[in-house]
């Protein structure tokens, strides 16, 4: 195995370190976050730092790096308290990647992703996205350790494409062709190995799907 | 599209809600966390809530649900300030799932995953894992919103299997057969769509890999 100490990483090349450390946790979720500014300008940006916080009530967390292109998104969320999460599917992952460019105009228009407005939320949705969520800001805090900002939001409304949701509440991400990201710029779709039975001591794991 | 309001979810079936909300962010990273108790008992448990916090210095975050099977892991981290992260690969994902069962003995022994001890860390590694990380606790806080506990740790040392690391610092998760999880119990491997060039306005996205 190749081995790296913290000191090796800190003394080494910055670009190597950034790519390496970003990838260490493994596959990450990928969502486009849609927001609208106080001046009514729509904004869209890709995020790989969206995670589950709780189901009752339904809560989601988002981590924002300080001083990055994502600043518009964070500012708009703090200003309006609303945002949308939109799964990225195989059919538009390159456009989703391109929304991270520093455009002067709305990323929806710049990359050619159509806005969907819904009465349930002031922020814009990505019309083509197979899973769309309306979120409402609950709290925001800056982590002392490196000025990363942690947003916690409630899940107010969810839309999921026909066929993407199973009867038990689980999602068929393979069928929706939801995309996952590795590091900063590498995109994958999933191939299912198995949906496994609830683990109990002394009981063989069963493949349910 | 099917649509669910927060009220629909809260008034609906608890098991549906748990599976649905857990899956909403999309694919999640999957790591086995290895710890050792003050009484020298090793512990191993699967986590899908490990995320990147920063590269300089290298930092990682882990979210722990309150009152779940993962409590041993959290207690051991708070007691010893050390833990390991181990990627789960296709060859042992069923064993990884089974470590979530409530065993009286060490999960390493119970499911048949061999311990690897390394001088760099008191916590145990999963010998067969293609990517292993030694972590040191920096801080822990309880989130007011639902008593979830957020741990922040520094990445002290990383080991990656030959062939898993590219020259630029990025990881080949497909080659390592790293597994990703959807919801609570559904496992996938990734199939690469593309590694894309840095996004710039007016510049066509290029596929680098």
TrEMBL record, chains A, B:
Protein family membership: Belongs to the flavoredoxin family.
Cofactor(s) the record lists: FMN
Alphabetic keyword roster: Flavoprotein, FMN, Oxidoreductase
Entry-linked Gene3D superfamilies: Electron Transport, Fmn-binding Protein, Chain A (2.30.110.10)
Protein name: Flavin reductase family protein
EC number: 1.5.1.-
One GO MF term attached to the UniProt entry: oxidoreductase activity
Residues covered by the Flavin reductase like domain: 32-165
InterPro entries: Flavin_Rdtase-like_dom, Split_barrel_FMN-bd
Species of the source: Belliella kenyensis
Pfam families xref list: Flavin_Reduct (PF01613)
């Amino acid at each position: 195995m190749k081995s790296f100490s913290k000191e090796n990483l800190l003394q080494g090349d910055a670009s190597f370190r950034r790519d390496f450390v970003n990838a260490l946790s493994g596959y990450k979720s990928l969502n486009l976050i849609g927001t609208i500014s106080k001046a009514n300008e729509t904004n869209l940006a890709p995020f790989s730092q969206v995670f589950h916080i709780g189901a009752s009530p339904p809560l989601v967390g988002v981590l924002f790096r300080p001083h990055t292109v994502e600043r518009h998104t964070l500012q708009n969320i703090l200003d309006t308290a609303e945002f949308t999460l939109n799964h990225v599917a195989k059919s538009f992952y390159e456009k989703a990647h391109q929304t991270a460019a520093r455009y002067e105009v709305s990323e929806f228009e710049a990359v050619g992703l159509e806005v969907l407005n819904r009465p349930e939320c002031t922020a814009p949705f990505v019309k083509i996205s197979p899973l769309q969520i309306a979120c409402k800001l609950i709290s925001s805090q800056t982590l002392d350790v490196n000025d990363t900002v942690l947003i916690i939001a409630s899940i107010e409304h969810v839309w999921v494409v026909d066929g993407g949701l199973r009867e038990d509440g689980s999602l068929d991400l393979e069928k929706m062709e939801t995309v996952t990201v590795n590091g900063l710029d590498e995109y994958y779709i999933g191939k299912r190995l198995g949906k496994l039975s609830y683990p109990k001591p002394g009981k063989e794991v069963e493949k349910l799907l």
